[in-house]
Amino acid sequence: MKQVLIDSYGTPWDVARCAEVPDVGDPGPDEVVFDVLAFPINPADMWFCRGSYRLKPPLPATPGAECVGRVTSVGSAVKHVAKGDLVINLQRENWTQRRRVKGDDAIPLPPGIDLRQAAMVRINPPTAQLMLSDFVDLAPCDWVIQNVANSAVGRLLIVLARQRGLRTVNVVRRAGLADELKTLGADIVIADGDDLAARVAVVTGDAAIRLGVEAIGGAATGRIVDCVATDGTVVHYGSMSGDDPKVTRSNFIYRGVKLTGFMLGRGLAKRTPEKIRAIYADLAGQVMAGKLSAPVDTVYPIDRIKEALAHADKGGRNGKILVAPNGAI
User: Fold this and answer.
1) What is the number of structural domains in the chain?
2) Are residues 233 and 194 in the same domain?
3) What confidence score (pLDDT) does residue 60 get?
4) pLDDT of residue 222
5) Cα separation values, 150 from 36, 128, 170, 186, Å
6) Taking Cα atoms as reference points, which of 161, 120, 102, 138 lies closest to residue 38?
7) For the domain that residue 74 is a member of, what is the CATH number?
8) What stretches in the chain show pLDDT beneath 50?
């Protein structure tokens, strides 16, 4: 079978190759085997190839945090999925044609779900959902502020917040994104800058913003912290700048603002397998209903992984780059 391997860390399209490897074999009693139908190329996958991600397994290694697959065989102890079911996988190493995983790591999806959307449901949708639910007990009409609002997570957060009756302040680098994000349900779209807190206070009427969501790091974290209310919470879930958060201590000492972090794996680890399946069942249902979606630019075959990685690194794309290891989707 075909599988993507990296033999060293470096430029993704230089270090990644499509290799022939032995088949995964039959499942054990508590395992599931599935054909990988599609996987997306995410920023974390690019960092993995470059060696700048938090995980650095022994080389050669296979990237891939997400995929969607169709079950081909099931161990005798696995009861929640059956042959022919569509599944996502909670584990990594998904840039391959076939996977064998523990049964609890195979999460069923409803039949008929769009495969391209299903390939992207594992990480970004629950990240947005859990950041809205796990840190602050928000009520309808409460305000949330986020930066990187035009990212995949940011767009999903806008939609999910609107469904709950929450109001969002969406910080972007370019004011020209306003119309697009307001179509999704954004209440306010505002350009980042040194005077962000003052401008946010004006456009929200000095609203008490209880939750901030932040993915840039450096001084950008501090600007979001400055925007939230006394005793508010800011959730840091990424560092696009590569810099550690920079926040003035007065926000902690005098205003009691809490700065915390989010990683999806930790959020899911607090939940039972049944609860995790329920989260994904809800999100998949919203995908089926057309409420949640993400644009796709191009789908590549697995043997063109170098080309796919180079495309994923380019600006000006109209959506995610996907790979279909077992034929067109």
Assistant:
1) 2
2) yes
3) 97
4) 98
5) 29, 13, 8, 11
6) 120
7) 3.90.180.10
8) none
Question: Distance (Å, rounded) from C-alpha 232 to C-alpha 200?
Answer: 15
Q: Are residues 111 and 155 in the same domain?
A: no
Rounded distance between C-alpha atoms, residue 268 and residue 276, angstroms: 7
Give me the domain span that covers residue 22.
2-123+294-324
Same domain, 222 and 301: no
Count the Cβ atoms, other than its own, within 10 Å of residue 14: 13
Using CA atoms, how far apart are residues 284 and 122, in angstroms rounded to an integer?
10
For β-strands 98-102 and 31-40, DSSP reports them as antiparallel
Kindly state whether residues 142 and 115 are assigned to the same domain: no
Residue 144 is predicted with a pLDDT of 98
CA pair distance 86, 109, nearest whole angstrom: 5
- Which DSSP symbol is given to 169? E
Alpha carbon separation from 253 to 84, 160, 194, 230 (Å, rounded): 56, 32, 22, 11
- pLDDT of 141: 97
Whether residue 112 is found in the same domain as residue 9: yes
The encoded tokens of residue 31 equal 């395992």
- Is-contact 299 116, C-beta < 8 A? yes
Going from the C-alpha of 220 to that of each of 162, 202, 217, 247, 308, the distances in angstroms are 24, 19, 6, 9, 31
Strand order in the sheet with 258-261: 188-191, 167-172, 143-146, 209-214, 233-236, 258-261
Query: Are the beta carbons of 196 and 215 closer than 8 angstroms?
Result: no
